[in-house]
Amino acid sequence: xxxxxxxxxxxxxxxxxxxxxxxxxxxxxxxxxxxxxxxxxxxxxxxxxxxxxxxxxxxxxxxxxxxxxxxxxxxxxxxxxxxxxxxxxxxxxxxxxxxxxxxxxxxxxxxxxxxxxxxxxxxxxxxxxxxxxxxxxxxxxxxxxxxxxxxxxxxxxxxxxxxxxxxxxxxxxxxxxxxxxxxxxxxxxxxxxxxxxxxxxxxxxxxxxxxxxxxxxxxxxxxxxxxxxxxxxxxxxxxxxxxxxxxxxxxxxxxxxxxxxxxxxxxxxxxxxxxxxxxxxxxxxxxxxxxxxxxxxxxxxxxxxxxxxxxxxxxxxxxxxxxxxxxxxxxxxxxxxxxxxxxxxxxxxxxxxxxxxxxxxxxxxxxxxxxxxxxxxxxxxxxxxxxxxxxxxxxxxxxxxxxxxxxxxxxxxxxxxxxxxxxxxxxxxxxxxxxxxxxxxxxxxxxxxxxxxxxxxxxxxxxxxxxxxxxxxxxxxxxxxxxxxxxxxxxxxxxxxxxxxxxxxxxxxxxxxxxxxxxxxxxxxxxxxxxxxxxxxxxxxxxxxxxxxxxxxxxxxxxxxxxxxxxxxxxxxxxxxxxxxxxxxxxxxxxxxxxxxxxxxxxxxxxx
Length: 608
Known about the structure:
Layout: H1 28-40, E1 50-58, E2 62-66, E3 73-76, E4 91-98, E5 106-109, H2 110-127, E6 131-140, E7 143-148, E8 151-156, E9 175-184, E10 189-193, H3 195-212, E11 218-226, E12 230-234, E13 239-243, E14 264-273, E15 278-282, H4 294-297, E16 303-311, E17 315-321, E18 324-329, E19 351-360, E20 365-369, H5 381-384, E21 390-399, E22 402-408, E23 411-416, E24 438-447, E25 452-456, H6 465-471, E26 477-486, E27 489-493, E28 499-503, H7 515-518, E29 524-533, E30 538-542, H8 543-547, H9 552-561, H10 569-574
Parallel strand pairs: 3-5, 13-15, 18-20, 23-25
Antiparallel strand pairs: 1-2, 1-4, 2-3, 4-5, 6-7, 6-9, 7-8, 9-10, 11-12, 11-14, 12-13, 14-15, 16-17, 16-19, 17-18, 19-20, 21-22, 21-24, 22-23, 24-25, 26-27, 26-29, 27-28, 29-30
């Protein structure tokens, strides 16, 4: 409060630009009025308030501004443009940054005042949904920075256009219209959108398209986005989807094989859901169906080439041309190889040749064959492998019933287990030959229809049973070595490398509980032939019959050596060894009919 000096002769200190008042010149009433007027001449200012001030001074670093306060305020010279001419007496808008700094000075800011003036316009535009122009300054993570009347705003990448933006850098430096969609007042952040303006512009166009939409309608659009499952088409404000299966009549791996981004195309509407605004489109339906005139292009017996587009357990599908596929069944891939899966013969993407075996236009099915491109080797097989001819092959596969022998690549024959040896009772082919071994064989039969060859190994040598008939006639004695123990007797190897059967009843007059204990493998016995069957290749032997000719001491030694319990010499002497039940021998002989040569595993043809 201004103090008035009572002594008119003495002057007192006043604030800047204040006049000295002589109290004698005024009445008390005038002084009171003057005092009130002078006090009201100062503003009641607050920090953050925008005020209009007058430039009253300029120095090297600061600008002095009178805002009607008790003291003048200062503004940093850097807040003015370098090219801007600063004149004393000019008006300038400022904001009170601080009423009193550490030096007691009033701190002002022109830049903040400029910002708040623009901020007011921004808030007005946001509240009233006004459109503002802005310049895109730079690209940042997630979008762009826009200069909006001097304030930086954020433009998300998804709000630039209704179409996906592929090159953000192309927008830098462009001036566009924007609408403010979000304002964060505490942080003074602004989010703008250009996309909403486009959507508002095309809303009428979108409504018109949806109102007129119907199945079968042909529309023109632009490729907006390409995904693994299809292509999105911009129909003028409304998006439609062409599924990958509706792009082409043929198979494709990715939609990018057919279309490119921003490409303009015509499509046909196949379906739509008005509520969800989901539109299904097709490109292939504007193209002629490849099966329409198939009979003019393909005929049975034609040789064709195509790419393998699918492999199944039963065959390979070949694309002859876009939209036309044929099946090569695994049974039609090779004349000679037994193929269990088509991947053994062809691979995905491989281009192969084939012959058309059948063509069904109604069901759109074509059967193809690859083996028909080469002569059938089985047609001349009888000339190459006549019955009775001898050959050498390789044992490729061993089974319980025989061994498959490869005569040449792709041509196999079967040697049944019964045709491996004249004299031995073979339980498994592995007793005679190993996989990969070379083996001599004789062709016993060729069935070209069933594609089977019967082979024999023992037939390489003459049948020794003609000679055995004399050597092992009934009643003749022979030494034998135990080589195998079976349920009801023993198998003994005789001197001419032929096996004979000793029934358990021909070893003792009492039942033997454990044959392997009494007669271990390798034991040698004196035996007598009690039966010889040339046709069935069977020799039956008896130890008891041989003992009938021995002395008591030799019989007693036999009983002791083989630990025969409850058996005496008189028992063995009185045994009627030549009489026995021939059914015992059936356990030794193969009484079941021999299995036929097995065919390769049958593979049932399936629909394409």
